[in-house]
């Protein structure tokens, strides 16, 4: 009994500093969470609409928005987040995918004043400048000194941490489009991207940061953490730290994660957590922190509050109680060696039916010698039957621009080659391809080459915004509900219509698992009309 109580106490002590569980008893024993402000959706009065200028964006940038992106009116999310960011408040943002969160954050950061280093100077006070006291002696007073803080050279103003190098390059493309008419010989003092990759010299990146500290430093968590850890670049006077797709950057263990997983996470923190702690420890004053994701939950908010990364943050939640945009149509197809069918609705079974179904399942499991069963066991997500189903759906949908998400374990170039054999215009979504996309003005996407299917993994394409995506194809079981949400969010952006078709291997408990996942996201899956 004593050992059991000791184990329970040890478990609580391990869980408490992590704040991964929302247990009421734990919350009572930790410092009170700073209250956040809830910003619900509201109807916008057109008479009061003043555009980006009314939100504090400079007229020059507003003109560039109109000229290069044909954007005049901010989205509802941008109306909510730009003013508090410009005020310097800590902000936690949750909104639907494709709402313009990242774009709005970048606009606000570009309008912030440039940060400068501060230099302490000790200055002697001339004795003739000192006012003589009527009670002082005739002898001259000893020389006095005073400390003066003077503004030094400019330093890095904001650091934006993104989940992938592709998204970092895309954000860089936005900024270059906005500033291409400013007349600067180089944009290095304004924007620099730091990522890993081929043909990228890490030392050259560090030298550029030291010689020309940018107003905005953008990159992946791994590379930025390396730079911060090396102490070759000064972040002492950093003004703002942005964690975009924070749930993915931190990847906190789930509510029901086993103790071993929680202890392992505490022993091996993610790069985003390490760089955040190091920046906070070295900063002369706490920088503004902006957290953004479409899947911000209470555990993530409490994590930032408990660690004092944010102080009295504004919680901007403009989801309106929904998780996915209403403009997206969802389908889910179950693929087996015999047939393709729509996912079936959940049917409540009686106790006797459940017992009978369990017995049937175990009988099938015992029949390992059965050829059909062996064939189904070997049936993987990259099987020809799965790829053929994608090809058929692609042709039926008459896709203009689509994206196929595949499990992280698959090799993208090899799968692209196989998709070509099925007649699909597949193309890997590489950094070079993203470079071409980011250099293309937004209003020209309507005239781009049709019939293309980008291929990417769940991880690499998170947060990517390709304007003309009409269809999203999901191959295999998503890693989590959050991953499905972000994959589906690549279409239906900024109010456009979109369609998501998932191809799930029909074996074991896969149907029950995907049904539970979709139910958790409150997604109403429609039957695919081309499948009985």
UniProtKB/TrEMBL annotation:
InterPro entries reported in the protein's UniProt record: DEAD/DEAH_box_helicase_dom, DEAD_box_RNA_helicases, Helicase_ATP-bd, Helicase_C-like, P-loop_NTPase
Does Nucleotide-binding appear among the keywords?
yes
**Limits of the Helicase C-terminal domain:** 391-532
Q: What is its EC number?
A: 3.6.4.13
Identify the species of origin: Ambispora gerdemannii
Enzyme class at the top of the EC tree: hydrolase
Domain of life the protein comes from = Eukaryota
Q: Which molecular-function annotation in GO is an example for this chain?
A: ATP binding
Q: What is this protein called?
A: RNA helicase
PANTHER family for the chain: ATP-DEPENDENT RNA HELICASE DEAD, DEAD-BOX ATP-DEPENDENT RNA HELICASE 47, MITOCHONDRIAL
